[in-house]
Amino acid sequence: MHNPGHTRSVNHRDHLLHTPDAFVRTTLPGMERAQVIVHISPACGAAFTQYTAELEPGGTLGLTHAQRFLYMLEGAADLATEASFHSLTPGSFAYIPQGTSHTLTAQQTTRLAVIEKPYEPLEHTSPPEVLVGREDSVLSTPLNDDPDLQVRALLPASFAHDFAVNTMTYQPGAALSQVEVHIMEHGLVMLEGGGIYRLGNNWYPVTAGDVIWMAPYCPQWFGAIGKHPAKYLIYKDANRHPLG
Questions:
Q1: Category of 190 on φ-ψ map: left (φ > 0), alpha (ψ -120 to 50) or beta
Q2: CA 184 to CA 31: how far, in whole Å?
Q3: Which of 46, 48, 162, 242 measures 20 to 30 Å from 114, CA to CA?
């Protein structure tokens, strides 16, 4: 039941928790039969944009001037570039380099997480190419040798890429081994389960569907709570010198 005037969402200088009870939908230029929930953007202080796109059958994403990462949450969609065609289903992901002409068209009612960031070229390094894959085909590795905390890196560990996207899965009771404070900023969407997130000096219960932004140097920690694993998709900028 809705509690008038209350929400779990919070917005602080160094972090944002965006919860479904506060989502507002809008459209972006070029979209057809689609709407988005913009969770993270430069308007909140971020250097990237993250949104959930909701497409009706036949719906399409608009164009972007940035590089784009897609992660399928529900439904099915066709991704076409000048050189390739792929059908995407839940668990599929795709990276489209900046300036690459492409279309994404929903075969049925579809939801997907979208991350967009202006590309930072690196001297003497070729830019990345289109990449399409499935999360369950990516090798899972334990974080800090903890078998109850598994990481799947969805983008190659290459200086060609200026950001990384991973999924992290925690067995019930598993937690990060330390409070992290670092230069990278994060965009995170809870995919399954839930737990407690420390952001700054605040502690928040989080669950599937919640989205979090963490600014550089925001103290952060997560522990899984409940009878089922907790899992999230997480973005971070990477592979570039702080001075640019």
A1: beta
A2: 31
A3: 242
